[in-house]
């Protein structure tokens, strides 16, 4: 049974999920700038820099939320971990066994 504690928990959960979505969006935009065999080095550099930027953005966004927003920590972290877990488990769920 799922119950809503209050509106602050819902907003905190949205912020936690939003941090993950924003960071992964930035990573995806950095990672897929180049394509093709001739730009293999650029692909590796962009992938690595996108991952570094994603981690830094996660740290910065959590720091901003901790310092300036009155967010509840339990739903904030729980929603972030739930979205992270669904991202990790997505390839397992979509395996096609024919």
From TrEMBL:
GO terms for cellular component: plasma membrane. This is ATP synthase protein I. It holds the Pfam family ATP-synt_I. The chain crosses the membrane at residues 12-35, 42-68, 74-95. It is a multi-pass membrane protein. It comes from Candidatus Enterovibrio escicola. Signal peptide: none annotated. The keyword Ribonucleoprotein does not apply.
